[in-house]
């Protein structure tokens, strides 16, 4: 599949060369955004911002929703910090019909859920762990690029971000996505109201990237052939106000209906953040209770499946001894050894502790230790070393003082 | 092993040849055959080297031979026997022929060799057998405080002491002066008016007008001039050689002209006649020297001559000649010419200090003139003291020990700002050295001052450093008023000791037994000297550290940096009742005023102060400087209790002293006593009580009104900077809350604590412990958290609405009911909080409770707290600590957890690392830090306010986001726990100044701050850290510095016992910030220094930051900043008008109470978070109206595009496909992010 993309990509690159320069395969696009007017910089009402686009290059083996249709996906880099999903839709809508937008650097999924999802299909687990690294090698995962957001995590059952804008709702192409599902019996979590007042949270400047998936591959060619700046008067505003004058930003216009209430910025963002970070107690209770129920269920599922895998009953090691291990709420006995069925304490951690304890014991023991300075040469050697140490220290100190002398510290006045 | 053998095998063949070649080549350029010779030998080496590994070491003859060699070489190293040949080989190969050869020369004559061993950096030389002398040096340095101390001492001395042989120019100069004085023509004696007329110039006759020779009618004695008996070189220069006083400046040289006895009669000791004759004598010499200076061509031309008081004694002026380059000298020098009386001029018994040497109607017969007679005697002692010094230098066995002692004493004293005539001179040092070496007589045995016993000296083999320590100990520990000391060990002192003791309360008698060295000194002068000596010794008590710079290098002479309060008193309107006697004893008004003030304050301040030091300087003839060092436990006492009502006379004296302030009170125990009460409005003002007392007493007794007293520490504006304006406070806080300080929030905490303990049985898990972890609960927030008035809050203006909250950590018992999964633990915490919320609300009906989530937290980290606003108006944030989280996170990070059947999968490392960091910081480090810092407030009453000032300073300079509040507390703790060569500060501004000083002096590149936070105190009360721990810290620090040469990470290292890396609170401080702090601190200190001199200190200016250095300035709308009123330059109009017109209120925030809500701070933090290291963000969290931004210069150059470059870019101009930082885009982005907050953006 990826092979089909590459020639298109290269062809595009060459054909657009006459129009605009490519930067390591990226096409820069200049956006002209309305600048909020302040008293000092009121002359320029429009400022430019460059984004960089490139046809998506898929990495094999990745099961992200994006890679399902690599030939119609665009990778966008250097998105403005405050651009919302709707802004990207409006922008990329001019070249074709956008199916969906996905910001990279997702949240870490719940480890327990992943484990339960992987049950039954062993290879699935491996793949699951590779998630989040779907970009090609030059896009090495930026360690600081993780948008950590509890709310996103809590609603991991949500398969993809849903669009909350007023724009035309697009028919989604039916596609079977291999997303390992949880068993149906797992109770759902009653989600908290969102903690971030913005539907699209702020992203780190310069590291904010997204995938735009078009319905088909055609818009990609149009996009890569694009030249010249694009005026975006409706940036950060609601679509119906897109053709009216850009809003004057002042205290009064903060509450103006023109700005997008689902993506507030500035003071109104902080005010609504204050409220949304303090959800009603009832919602928290519901959330905590349902999360715990879900956790209990998932845990029992996991342990049950392990028991099934490794055989129920007491654990017997290779030599026929029964291994006694600490039981939990769910397990009676049972160990999870690497590969084999049930060598109970098969951990490096314990081994390490044991080893260090033994060392301690040796040091403490007053028994048969080699006597120090038994031979005369040992004593001479020790004395030599001591003298050498003294001299070395002397030299070191002298060097230090010389260093200090250079800083002209030792002036008597 | 194989490697060594290999080399050896090579040497065997190549060594000698190579050396031969080398010898031949050295003198001339090599010719070609020899070159090839070298080449072949070189090849040989290479060949063997390459070949060797192939050969089996056991059966190869070459290598076995090599093996022998190795052992031989080793034995040789141990035994140091000969074996030259083999040795040569080794060296030759090693390529260090020269060094080793030198060593060879030394080695054969091992033993007591005379040449000082030259240790080389070569590794092997460390194993050379030690010479006696080397061992001696090594041992000696160990005994004098370690190598570095001894070496630094050496370095300091070599840069101080000049050679003993005088420079030729100076010798000539002195010879000229000598011959000039000796060749002057004698003048016949005339009556004073005529003599003065003959002289032609005005002569500054000392003494009161009553005795002035020109104003008295009945003068019968005469003034004349004869050739001096002799002209000698006095002082230390002749004995000890010169020393350096300043850059290109040499210490003084004293020339003493001994006046001929023929000029005087025995009666001349009376009525200032001696002094008048003396000054006439000197005036003639001065005039002739001046003429000599004006004459061009002579060797003395160009010299400057002036009068000066000898040792601050205005009765005996001296002539000072300054000479320098013009006279052909390398270092400029001041030569003082004084006139001395011949030893046998007056009968010693007639000069007894207990007699009166003045005859005047206003002076009673029984009066004493001790200072007057001391002056006369002192003029006869030049030679005797010179002999004393000479005796010491002959007596001491250590080379130039006396010279070194005097030099070190002078340096030590001048760093501490001790005046020359108050202990800073070499002359005084020589007296002390006599005490240390020869021993003294000490009085006070059995409580009787006059009963003396002999204390032997320490002998002649002391080093200068040991003598110095002994001198500090003697002078520091001796209560000289109870136990007077006489340096005169012989049986027949010139003046009997009892007579001296009768006239002086404090006595240190000179070696001739004729004068009291402390005669002219004020009690405060002695106390100051003793204070410094004691503190220096206390500093040295801790032997593991290098105190050299504290003792000899740090400059402590900035007066406001030593005293807890420093007052400048304008004495132009002072009322002094002085008589002729007083005027003769203290001849200047300044001295008399200083004496009067000193005794008045000492009586009034009683035990509130440890020290009252009055000083005067010639530049300000109208002001007296008073330094006070408080007694921290009693300085702030509100009431002074006087004598009880029974004792009438004492009560009368008390009322007389205090005036209207004195009142009779009845106390709880039923006693009725006189008392004085001082009123204060808020708790912080207690520190101004000593100042109030000073003002009251000066006004009452000396007619000095309060505006004439300039204070440093008691200035109102110090505290004003830590308080919001009264109108702003009244608009939102509970009335009268300013009187309570931190009390309300602590009470709120107590209440909450009790509540949590009482609801234990209603919770599913019981509460194990509740720990405070907030600066609000340890008295160290910049602004006192006054409780808000909940009823009035909604109507308050927006710019006052900030409500601070205190964090508390609650730990529940550990139980198997806690899940073993990190994400699930958080859910359990939510559930527990919800439960707690219900219970608290039930118990506290009027409280407001919320569970507040942290933005941007991951699922596995602690992400929520319970926010409680109590009805009393104080707010708390309660977090739940579960200790198992740490284990789980550790396992997730290390990845080698023990696996059980019941183990759950672990979260990914990239989430676990920040989660662990947060957990450790929030639940382990913060509570522990709180627990160690909180007691400091109780131990040092001024710590809290000083800390608040320092925090205010950091935030005022827009460093709120850069420097953590805990780091500031540690910095301040350093000032109190390691006060260096001074005592602990006892006033907040003093603590603040010291901290600023620490910041300017701290060379963070090469030294960490090591704080003994929980160390036990030594004898002097200074805590110390275990030496092993400390060495470990230093080693860690050095290892880190060698790894990170550019200080990219960890500029500041502040280590404590709890934190050996020293980065717990300072890891975010970069080099840029550290440098910025240092330059700001320097500027602040400079402002304070100049202001103390001119006594006009604008405190607000110290807290006003320069904005010139920032690339971008983001100005914010001030009206909507909830912390606006806390700002340094907040404009009261912003809230006054708002509060007045309540119905026309414009509000953005509405009526809701928002706790810890500060959009400006959140905005600044968001900028830092979103732009990472592209921008440095500077902001003042206390009412800052501007955010300063600095671009990271590393990001500016163009580079190839990468999608995760980490900053916003645009295509750069030019052909290459490179991109560059898009500053405009970033600025407009920030403008969008701050919509509604930003007033304007200024780009430089």
TrEMBL record, chain A:
- Give the Basic and acidic residues compositional bias ranges: 359-378
User: Which Gene3D superfamilies does the annotation name?
Assistant: 3.30.70.330, 6.10.250.1770
Gene Ontology MF terms in the entry:
nucleic acid binding
Residues of the Ribosomal RNA-processing protein 7 C-terminal domain: 277-413
Which Gene Ontology cellular-component terms appear in the entry? Answer: CURI complex; UTP-C complex
Read off the SUPFAM superfamilies from this record. Answer: RNA-binding domain, RBD (SSF54928)
Skewed-composition ranges (Basic residues): 170-180
Question: What family does the database annotate?
Answer: Belongs to the RRP7 family.
Q: Which PANTHER family match?
A: RIBOSOMAL RNA PROCESSING PROTEIN 7-RELATED (PTHR13191), RIBOSOMAL RNA-PROCESSING PROTEIN 7 HOMOLOG A-RELATED (PTHR13191:SF0)
Segments carrying the region annotation (Disordered) are 118-181, 349-378
Which GO annotations describe the biological process of this protein?
Answer: ribosomal small subunit assembly; rRNA processing
Give the protein's recorded name.
Ribosomal RNA-processing protein 7-domain-containing protein
Mark out the compositionally biased spans (Acidic residues): 120-141
Which InterPro entries did the record assign? Nucleotide-bd_a/b_plait_sf (IPR012677), RBD_domain_sf (IPR035979), RRP7 (IPR040446), RRP7_C (IPR024326)
TrEMBL record, chain B:
Location in the cell reads: Nucleus, Nucleolus
Q: Which GO biological process entries does UniProt record here?
A: rRNA processing; tRNA export from nucleus
Region Disordered: which residues?
1-129
* Keywords for the protein's UniProt record, in alphabetical order: Nucleus, Ribonucleoprotein, Ribosome biogenesis, RNA-binding, rRNA processing
- A GO-annotated cellular component: CURI complex
Compositionally biased region (Acidic residues): 78-108
GO MF annotations, alphabetized:
RNA binding
Which parts of the sequence belong to the Nrap protein domain?
253-393, 406-554, 563-702, 733-938, 940-1105, 1107-1241
Highest taxon of the source?
Answer: Eukaryota
- Biased composition, class Basic residues, residue ranges: 19-28
Q: Does the keyword rRNA processing apply?
A: yes
The family annotation for this protein states: Belongs to the NRAP family.
Q: What is this protein called?
A: U3 small nucleolar RNA-associated protein 22
Q: What is the lineage of its organism?
A: Eukaryota, Fungi, Dikarya, Basidiomycota, Agaricomycotina
């Amino acid at each position: 599949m990826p092979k089909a993309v590459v020639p298109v990509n290269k062809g595009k690159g060459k054909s657009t060369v006459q129009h605009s320069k490519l930067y390591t395969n990226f096409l820069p696009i200049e956006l002209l955004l309305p600048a909020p007017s302040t008293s000092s910089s009121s002359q320029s009402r429009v400022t430019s911002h460059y984004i960089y686009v490139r046809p998506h290059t898929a990495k094999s083996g990745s099961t992200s929703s994006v890679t399902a249709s690599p030939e119609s996906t665009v990778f966008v880099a250097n998105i403005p910090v405050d651009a919302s999903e709707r802004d990207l839709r409006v922008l990329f809508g001019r070249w074709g019909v956008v199916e969906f937008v996905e910001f990279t650097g997702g949240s870490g999924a719940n480890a327990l859920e992943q484990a339960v999802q992987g049950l039954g299909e062993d290879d699935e687990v491996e793949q699951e762990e590779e998630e989040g690294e779907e970009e090609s090698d030059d896009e090495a995962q930026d360690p600081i690029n993780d948008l950590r957001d509890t709310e996103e995590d809590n609603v991991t059952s949500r398969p993809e971000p849903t669009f909350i804008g007023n724009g035309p709702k697009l028919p989604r192409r039916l596609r079977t996505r291999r997303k390992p599902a949880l068993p149906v019996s797992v109770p759902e979590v009653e989600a908290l109201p969102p903690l971030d007042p913005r539907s699209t949270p702020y992203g780190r400047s310069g590291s904010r990237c997204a995938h735009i998936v078009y319905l088909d591959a055609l818009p990609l060619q149009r996009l890569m052939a694009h030249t010249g700046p694009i005026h975006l008067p409706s940036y950060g505003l609601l679509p119906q106000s897109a053709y009216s004058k850009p809003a004057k930003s002042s205290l009064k216009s903060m509450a103006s209906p023109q700005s997008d209430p689902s993506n507030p910025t500035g003071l109104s963002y902080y005010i609504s953040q204050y409220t949304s970070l303090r959800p009603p107690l009832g919602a928290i209770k519901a959330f905590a209770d349902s999360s715990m129920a879900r956790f209990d269920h998932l845990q029992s599922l996991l342990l049950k499946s392990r028991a099934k895998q490794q055989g129920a009953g007491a654990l017997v090691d290779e030599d026929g001894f029964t291994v006694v291990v600490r039981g939990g709420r769910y397990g009676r006995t049972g160990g999870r050894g690497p590969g084999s069925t049930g060598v109970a304490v098969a951990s490096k951690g314990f081994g390490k502790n044991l080893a260090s304890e033994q060392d301690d014991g040796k040091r403490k023991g007053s028994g048969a230790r080699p006597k120090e300075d038994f031979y005369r040469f040992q004593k001479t050697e020790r004395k030599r070393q001591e003298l050498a140490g003294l001299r070395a220290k002397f030299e070191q100190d002298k060097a230090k003082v010389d260093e200090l002398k250079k800083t002209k510290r030792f002036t008597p006045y | 092993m194989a490697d060594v053998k290999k080399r050896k095998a090579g040497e065997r063949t190549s060594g000698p040849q190579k050396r031969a070649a080398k010898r031949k080549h050295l003198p001339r350029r090599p010719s070609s055959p020899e070159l090839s010779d070298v080449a072949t030998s070189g090849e040989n080496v290479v060949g063997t080297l390459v070949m060797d590994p192939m050969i089996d070491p056991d059966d190869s003859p070459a290598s076995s031979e090599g093996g022998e060699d190795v052992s031989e070489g080793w034995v040789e190293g141990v035994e140091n026997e000969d074996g030259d040949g083999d040795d040569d080989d080794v060296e030759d190969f090693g390529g260090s022929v020269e060094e080793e050869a030198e060593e060879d020369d030394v080695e054969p004559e091992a033993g007591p060799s005379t040449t000082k061993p030259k240790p080389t950096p070569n590794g092997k030389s460390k194993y050379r057998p030690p010479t006696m002398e080397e061992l001696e040096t090594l041992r000696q340095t160990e005994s004098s405080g370690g190598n570095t101390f001894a070496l630094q001492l050496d370095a300091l001395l070599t840069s101080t002491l000049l050679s003993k042989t005088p420079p030729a120019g100076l010798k000539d100069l002195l010879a000229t002066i000598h011959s000039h004085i000796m060749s002057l023509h004698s003048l016949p004696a005339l009556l004073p008016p005529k003599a003065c007329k003959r002289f032609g110039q005005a002569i500054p006759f000392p003494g009161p007008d009553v005795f002035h020779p020109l104003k008295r009618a009945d003068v019968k004695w005469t003034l004349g001039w004869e050739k001096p008996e002799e002209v000698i070189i006095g002082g230390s220069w002749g004995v000890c050689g010169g020393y350096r006083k300043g850059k290109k400046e040499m210490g003084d040289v004293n020339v003493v002209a001994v006046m001929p006895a023929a000029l005087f009669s025995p009666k001349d000791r009376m009525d200032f006649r001696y002094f008048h004759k003396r000054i006439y004598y000197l005036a003639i010499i001065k005039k002739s020297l001046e003429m000599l200076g004006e004459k061009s061509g002579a060797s003395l031309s160009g010299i400057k001559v002036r009068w000066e008081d000898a040792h601050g004694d205005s009765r005996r002026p001296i002539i000072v000649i300054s000479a320098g380059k013009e006279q052909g000298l390398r270092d400029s020098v001041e030569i003082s010419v004084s006139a001395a009386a011949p030893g046998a001029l007056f009968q010693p018994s007639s000069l007894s200090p207990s007699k009166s040497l003045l005859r005047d109607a206003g002076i009673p017969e029984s009066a004493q003139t001790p200072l007057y007679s001391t002056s006369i005697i002192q003029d006869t002692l030049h030679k005797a003291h010179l002999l004393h010094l000479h005796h010491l230098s002959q007596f001491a066995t250590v080379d130039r020990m006396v010279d070194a002692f005097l030099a070190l004493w002078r340096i030590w004293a001048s760093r501490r700002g001790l005046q020359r005539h108050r202990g800073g001179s070499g002359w005084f040092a020589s007296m002390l050295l006599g005490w240390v070496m020869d021993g003294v007589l000490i009085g006070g045995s059995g409580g009787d001052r006059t009963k003396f016993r002999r204390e032997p000296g320490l002998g002649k083999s002391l080093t200068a450093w040991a003598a110095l320590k002994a001198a500090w100990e003697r002078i520091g520990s001796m209560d000289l008023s109870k136990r007077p000391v006489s340096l005169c060990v012989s049986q027949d002192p010139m003046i009997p000791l009892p007579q001296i003791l009768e006239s002086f309360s404090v006595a240190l008698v000179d070696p001739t037994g004729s004068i009291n060295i402390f005669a002219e000194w004020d009690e405060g002068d002695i106390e100051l000297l003793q204070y410094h000596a004691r503190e220096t010794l206390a500093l040295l008590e801790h032997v593991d550290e290098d105190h050299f710079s504290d003792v000899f290098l740090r400059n402590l002479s900035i007066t406001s940096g030593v005293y807890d309060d420093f007052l400048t008193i304008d004495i132009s309107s002072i009322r002094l009742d002085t008589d002729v006697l007083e005027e003769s004893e203290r001849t200047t008004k300044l001295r008399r005023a200083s004496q009067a003030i000193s005794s008045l304050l000492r009586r009034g301040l009683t035990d509130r102060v440890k020290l009252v030091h009055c000083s005067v300087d010639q530049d300000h003839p109208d002001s007296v400087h008073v330094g006070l060092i408080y007694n921290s436990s009693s300085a702030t006492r509100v009431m002074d209790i006087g004598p009880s009502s029974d004792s009438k006379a004492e009560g009368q004296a008390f009322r007389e002293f205090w005036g209207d302030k004195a009142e009779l009170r009845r106390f709880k125990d039923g006693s009725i006593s006189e008392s004085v009460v001082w009123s204060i409005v808020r708790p912080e003002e207690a520190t101004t009580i000593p100042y109030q007392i000073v003002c009251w007493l000066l006004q009452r007794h000396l007619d000095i009104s309060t505006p004439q007293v300039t204070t440093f520490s008691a200035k109102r504006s110090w505290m004003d900077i830590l308080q919001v304006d009264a109108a702003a406070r009244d608009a939102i806080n509970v009335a009268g809350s300013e009187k309570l300080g931190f009390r309300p929030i602590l009470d709120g905490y107590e209440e909450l604590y009790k509540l949590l303990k009482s609801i234990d049985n209603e919770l599913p898990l019981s509460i194990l412990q509740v720990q405070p972890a907030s600066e609000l609960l340890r008295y160290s927030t910049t602004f006192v958290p006054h409780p808000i008035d909940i009823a009035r809050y909604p109507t308050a203006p927006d710019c006052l609405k900030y409500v601070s909250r205190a964090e508390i950590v609650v730990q529940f018992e550990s139980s198997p009911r806690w899940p073993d999964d990190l994400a699930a633990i958080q859910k359990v915490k939510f559930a527990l909080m919800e439960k707690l919320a219900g219970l608290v609300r039930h118990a506290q009906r009027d409280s407001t409770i919320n569970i507040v989530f942290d933005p941007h937290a991951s699922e596995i980290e602690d992400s929520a707290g319970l926010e409680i606003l109590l009805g009393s108006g104080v707010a708390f944030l309660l977090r739940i600590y579960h200790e198992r989280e740490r284990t789980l996170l550790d396992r997730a990070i290390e990845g080698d957890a023990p696996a059980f059947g019941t183990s759950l999968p672990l979260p990914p490392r990239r989430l676990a690392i920040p989660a662990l960091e947060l957990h450790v910081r929030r639940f382990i480090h913060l509570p522990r830090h709180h627990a160690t810092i909180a007691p400091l407030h109780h131990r040092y009453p001024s710590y809290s306010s000083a800390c608040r000032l320092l925090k205010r300073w950091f935030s005022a300079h827009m460093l709120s986001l850069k420097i953590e509040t805990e780091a500031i507390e540690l910095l301040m703790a350093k000032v109190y726990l390691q006060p260096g060569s001074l005592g602990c500060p006892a006033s907040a501004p003093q603590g603040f100044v010291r901290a600023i000083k620490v910041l300017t002096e701290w060379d963070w590149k090469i030294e960490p701050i090591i704080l003994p936070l929980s160390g036990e105190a030594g004898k002097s009360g200074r805590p110390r850290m275990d030496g092993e721990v400390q060495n470990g810290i230093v080693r860690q620090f050095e290892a880190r510095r060698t790894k990170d040469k550019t200080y990219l990470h960890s500029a500041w290292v502040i280590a404590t016992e709890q934190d050996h890396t020293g980065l717990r609170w300072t890891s975010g401080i970069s080099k840029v910030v550290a440098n910025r702090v240092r330059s700001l601190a320097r500027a602040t200190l400079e402002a304070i220094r100049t202001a103390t001199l001119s006594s006009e200190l604008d405190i607000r200016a110290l807290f006003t930051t320069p904005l010139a250095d920032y690339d971008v300035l983001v100005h914010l709308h001030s009206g909507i900043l909830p912390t606006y009123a806390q700002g340094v330059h907040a404009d009261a109009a912003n809230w006054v008008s708002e509060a007045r017109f309540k119905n026309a209120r414009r509000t953005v925030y509405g009526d809701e109470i928002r706790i810890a809500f500060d959009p400006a701070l959140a905005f600044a933090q968001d900028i830092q978070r979103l732009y990472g290291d592209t921008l440095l963000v500077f902001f003042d969290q206390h009412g800052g109206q501007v955010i300063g931004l600095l671009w990271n210069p590393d990001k500016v150059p163009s580079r190839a595009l990468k999608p995760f470059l980490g900053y916003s870019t645009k295509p750069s101009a030019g052909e290459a496909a490179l991109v560059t930082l898009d500053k405009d885009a970033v600025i407009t982005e920030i403008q969008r992010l701050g919509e509604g907050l930003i007033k304007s953006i200024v780009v430089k």
